[in-house]
Amino acid sequence: MTAAVRGAAVIGDSVFITSRFNTPEGKMRLGEFDVNTGEMRSIDDLAIASSGGQKLAADDRYVYIGPAGSAYVHRFDPRTKELVAWARAGGSTTWYYDMVVHGEHLYIGTYPDCTVKRIRLADATVETYGRISTSQYAAAVAVDDEYVYGGSAAPGTLLRWPKAGGSPVDLTPHLSTSPVGILDMVVSDGVVYVACGRQLISFDRDGSHRVSRDIAAEDRYVDQVTVGADGRVYALTRLTTNLYEVTADGLVKVGQPLADVENQLLAPLPDGALLGVSGLGHVWRATPNGTASVWQTATRGFGYPETIQSMMRHTRGTIWVGGHYGMTVHRTEAGTSDRFDVNGEVKAMAEGKAGVVYAGLYPSTQIVAIDPGSYRIRPLGLLGNEQLRTKRIHVDRPRNQLIVASSPQTTKHTGALTFIDLATGTFEGHREFLPDQSVMDVVVQGTTAYIAGDTYGEGTTGPVRKVAQVAAVDIVTRRLLWREEIKPDWQSYENLYVLGNLLYAVGRRPRGAWFAYDLHTRRIVMEGDLGGYGQLNGVDGRVFSWVHWTNDISELPTVPGGEVVTLYDNVPRGWYNNPSFHFTPDGRATWGMHGTDLARFPLPRRS
Known about the structure:
Layout: E1 5-11, E2 14-19, E3 28-34, E4 40-46, E5 53-58, E6 63-67, E7 72-76, E8 83-88, E9 95-102, E10 105-111, E11 115-120, E12 126-131, E13 138-143, E14 147-152, E15 158-162, E16 169-170, E17 182-188, E18 191-196, E19 199-204, E20 211-214, E21 221-227, E22 233-238, E23 243-246, E24 251-255, E25 263-268, E26 274-278, E27 282-286, E28 292-296, E29 310-313, E30 318-322, E31 324-331, E32 336-351, E33 357-362, E34 366-370, E35 377-382, E36 387-396, E37 401-408, E38 416-421, E39 427-430, E40 438-445, E41 448-454, E42 470-474, E43 479-484, E44 492-499, E45 502-509, E46 513-518, E47 523-529, E48 534-539, E49 542-547, E50 553-556, E51 565-568, E52 582-583, E53 589-594, E54 597-602
Antiparallel strand pairs: 1-2, 2-3, 3-4, 5-6, 6-7, 7-8, 9-10, 10-11, 11-12, 13-14, 14-15, 15-16, 17-18, 18-19, 19-20, 21-22, 22-23, 23-24, 25-26, 26-27, 27-28, 29-30, 30-31, 31-32, 32-33, 33-34, 34-35, 36-37, 37-38, 38-39, 40-41, 41-42, 42-43, 44-45, 45-46, 46-47, 48-49, 49-50, 50-51, 52-53, ...
């Protein structure tokens, strides 16, 4: 169960939140909660064709919903429960990254066209200001009585338009270099405040009187900025949830209502308090330099099943399931579960000594260790190194290290293989093993790690190099043993598995192609097409595939001339990322997802 939230907005003494994902019935969940007590006032599951909620805004009566993937901004009346597809503001793939009501208009920033528009509240007429930058994300919009400001994700660009429309003025030279571009901004008394990477920058509307304030080393980014009821400007940081007052020349910490979350809302309340909403579904109320009250909406009627990020069968007989900023541990024999918050999407897990669970979190690239009994989370550090997604974690017990494969930040091409010394806590990242490629997977046999690349990197417009590679790395010396373009027509690998002297690989480009490569003779000895990519894994000398696109579980041959045998056909999809295998100790079954249900799949022997 998750309470993952993307959108949040306030009307009077109610805060409204939208589900990041749809419910199993395909509905977008909208929750209304009391800003003073956290009490749930209503839960409405809305029939909005989309991939879930993205952004909310509100005037005195209506909640405006910008879905993830919808041509329309929707309007919801909390009093009558009327929902309408209110204004067509883009194409069917449009995501709404910022929405601000100011005066008689709703101002929006959209993806993938990185465009700022406004919609007249009276009649839903749409007007376009223009595109901000070559980025796809118009991440932040701010409005005052004269101008409209639009800020983009990386490459961070800031434009200022006359409110009535016309040619923009480029304020980008007043920013700082930011790997994420602009995350939020506000304008107050003629001063623009911009959350730009590791700085909170302010300047007058013409760019004069610029002040750059560095955030604390423990903070990742400022992701929310607001103007309080007292006219003071406040900033909230991702990763720590430190709350700051923005002063003339710096940042003064005035609270920490939560820890280890991303933030979806920071809003002023009339009595001088501040209201926050986290991506995990927390709602909190805090007085600067005072106390904070925190409510978890997952336990107040808002929780809903989600497609999962990752899974792991623990040696203690439990099944660990990673979701969006949450983890559930299932005791399948007892039929009970524990749920706890984690600081990100759990993209990969592995079990180490004493049952410790190591997890890689997105988007922070934080690697954490979780105690299997108390669920206490201990951060080990960040991958950094321009990385974004943990793809696989391997525990190398003889050398007491973790080996982590990862893909790079958006617009980047080069992933990394990172060695984490668990005794010293040091991280050693290697980006040279697969140049200009994401490191999509790592499998280890003996003292050799095999890794495979994706030339498209992460969120790029195309590859730098033409052919993806497979490489072998010595995990003792941490040096490259060999690197090869096994398939000259492959641009992207997806997954690897090693059985004896055979290296199995499945491709993303071409999608679903697979081969078995003899590591002794360095030749391909078997190949075929699975119809889509997913995970390869094996147990007891058998090799299996679970394909995302056909949703089939199949057994692959282990000798030339053998055939692929489908064991399960069209399994209801329950994985956000690739499906994965989690074999029972006797190798006769695997745990996995059947829709949003945890399920055990027997693995019958070939007849």
